[in-house]
Amino acid sequence: MDYVIVGLGNPGPEYELTRHNLGFWTVDQVAKKIKCRFTEGSGEFFLARKSIRGQSVALVKPTTYMNLIGHVVMQLVDQYGIALHQLLVVCDDFALEEGRIRIRRQGSDGGHNGLKSIISELGTQQFARIRLGIGPVPAGVEPADFVLAKIEKTTINTLRDLADRAAQAVIECVTQGVDLAANAYNIRPSAPPEDADGAERPKEV
Asked: Is 71 among the catalytic positions?
């Protein structure tokens, strides 16, 4: 296996149309683009496999809740014997403005419990991730409530477009490499403070 792409989200229909499930949306779009289907994996996840321009790829949707996703990643590491450079995680990020994509080779959890769980299980922050901007969190709203609330009709098409662009970014990470994909998608010259060193930011559930 050359790449394992893990989309972060929560299982169940009640979470399907929430911002916290953009990782799921993205890997669903990748599967659609490369014409493969998800089936039950031999662990707590759904799995779709395909070769993309000679690179063997596994798309993964964990079936645990967000704070246990690290266990799923360890299952994948054990099953496929993957190295850290073969892992790519896709998740939402309320510290990035809505519609932005940011690709990094490593970084802190930034308040995201899915990333926190993965970092805890792997014992390192050194794995690539694609973060999808859903911010800012409205004034007076708790971040956890924001990411788990049903997406408004006025916003859903914008976020579907974001997931579609992120799916193409995943494909480019696989075929062109993370650095070239980052150059193409991290197009703004400035970035939020947490991009540099995991500076303080609101925490979510």
From this structure: no
